[in-house]
Amino acid sequence: MIARIDAERLQGELDTLASFSDHPPPAVTRVVFGDMDLRARAYLKSLFADASLIVHEDPVGNTFARWTGANPSLAPIATGSHCDAIPNAGRFDGTVGVLGGLEAIRALQRAGFTPERSIDLILFTSEEPTRFGIGCLGSRLLASAVDHLVGETLTSGGQSLNQIRSSAGFPGSLADVPLRGGAYAAFVELHIEQGPILERERIDIGVVTAIAAPASFRLFVEGEGGHAGAVLMPDRHDAFLAAAEIALAIEAIARSSGSNDTVATTGVCELFPGAINSVPSRARLDVDVRDIDEARRDRVLLDIERASDTIAARRGVTVRREPINADPPAHCAPTIVDAIEGACNARGLRHRRMISRAYHDSLFMSRIAPTGMIFIPCRDGISHRPDEYAAPEAIARGAVVLADTLADLAAEGGRGEGLV
Ligand code: GLV
Ligand code: MN
Ligand code: MN
User: Fold this and answer.
1) Pairing mode, if any, of strands 351-356 and 213-222?
2) Exposure of 55 by Cβ count < 10 A (0-12 exposed, 13-18 middle, 19+ buried)?
3) Cα–Cα nearest to 3, from 295, 347, 415
4) Ligand 3 centroid vs 321 CA: distance in angstroms?
């Protein structure tokens, strides 16, 4: 059985998917449960149906498209990724794993392969934190890594997640989303690297061994507002300036952690009242901190806490921190890593092991199934920008490695035989 990828068709589908965007090309903005997300989902579901996959959706909108195996009593394996995109993003983040996963399945179908285990293609809801503040919402719920009560506590524009998802056509209780242990024998996600290593080293495939530990929190600063002309400088308690100093302290703390693996980003700053002639009385920062070393990341979080308290006291403002998430790193399963490397070797592709500094739905799928990730190079390592780019040949190579890996894991007598 030799799977062959239809690279042209896959590119055409990536182009169509990119057209569902709130911003004009080359930018892609697709916020979960927004009109463009719903149109993208409808398009993807039509493709899944064309491939004779059986589609079902859970109450948070995670979408499962199944190719039923010869032995449905065995635990299925799965692949997939997300199709939501942060504001002003590119067209390959997540989508390569969804459409590449679909093309991998179709390539296996065309090659006449019959999987022993069923193969699910999963479209995860809200991998990006744009709308509800927390990343990997769908996979987090699947893995029981967050309580189903978030349906009421997470909000966007004054509406709860529960209200928004039911208006988007996903009713039911979030308590029904978690998967039971052993629901999947394996999970493999195809994704662009979002970093420069593969391109720089001219390597076709990255075989992910671990995913860095992400954390995020909100920081609220309360100062004193007033007239921009009338309040004298020595009398000010400007919430924005305190927030700005805290953001600079966050940068300095991350830089001095002792490792380049520590990264910290203040990606959101909201000011109140937001008028040119008014001293800001309130500021909100959204901060993202990551490291492959969880203990070091937690030390950085603690240092940020201390620094923000000190700055607040000096500037006569108050700060309140609200944690969003602090997840441990994920480790990929040796069986899946071996299967991916085996597929690369059989195809004569250059590959190397690497860690993922970005998070992915695999971070949570690894809690409930042996998990691995296939990375492909992207130009200059750029991601979360409109000029994100992965070459058609690179995508096709990723999809073929995924196809061969899925075949190995789903076949009778394959590497997946020892799995649950
Ligand atoms: C995923 O989009 C991430 O921020 O790592
Ligand atoms: Mn992303
Ligand atoms: Mn992604």
Assistant:
1) unpaired
2) middle
3) 347
4) 27
pLDDT in tens, 76-100: 999 999 999 999 999 999 999 999 9
CB of 359 closer than 6 angstroms to any ligand 1 atom: yes
> Separation of 99 CA from ligand 2 center, angstroms?
16
Q: Which helix (H) or strand (E) holds 188?
A: strand 186-192
pLDDT band at residue 416, thresholds of 50, 70 and 90? confident
Q: At what angle do helices 392-410 and 7-18 cross, to 10 degrees?
A: 110
- Which ligand is located closest to the Cα atom of residue 82? 3
Q: Whose CA is nearest to atom 5 of ligand 1?
A: 358
CA-to-CA dists, residue 36 to 18, 85, 101, 158, 168, angstroms: 10, 10, 21, 20, 11
- Taking the C-alpha atoms of residue 80 and residue 284, their distance in angstroms, rounded to an integer, is 34
* CA-angle at 335, arms to 400 and 373, nearest 5°: 45
Query: Per-residue pLDDT averaged across 116-133, rounded?
Result: 98
Of the bound ligands, which one is closest to the alpha carbon of residue 97?
3
How far is the centre of ligand 1, averaged over its atoms, from the C-alpha of 204 (Å)?
A: 22
CB 325 within 8 Å of CB 286: no
Note whether 247 and 377 are within 8 A (CB): no
Whether 417 has a pLDDT exceeding 90, the answer reads: no
Tell me which residue has its CA closest to atom 2 in ligand 1.
Answer: 128
The verdict on the CB of residue 128 being under 6 Å from ligand 1 is: yes
3-state secondary structure of 85: strand
Closest ligand 1 atom to the C-alpha of 290?
A: 5
Question: Could you read off the pLDDT of 106-117 as tens digits, one per residue?
Answer: 999 999 999 999
Q: Both ends of the chain: CA-CA distance in Å?
A: 25
Q: Are strands 330-331 and 205-211 parallel, antiparallel or unpaired?
A: antiparallel
SS (H, E, C) 90-112: CCCCCHHHHHHHHHHHHHHHHCC
CA 47 to chain centre: 22
Identify any residues that bridge with 146 across adjacent strands, giving them in sequence order.
none
Cβ atoms of 96 and 398 within 8 Å: the answer is yes
* Cα distance between residue 414 and residue 110, in whole Å: 19
Give the confidence band of 69 by pLDDT, cuts at 50, 70, 90: very high
CA 96, chain centre distance (Å) = 12
Of 410, 412, 344, 378, the closest CA to residue 186 belongs to 410
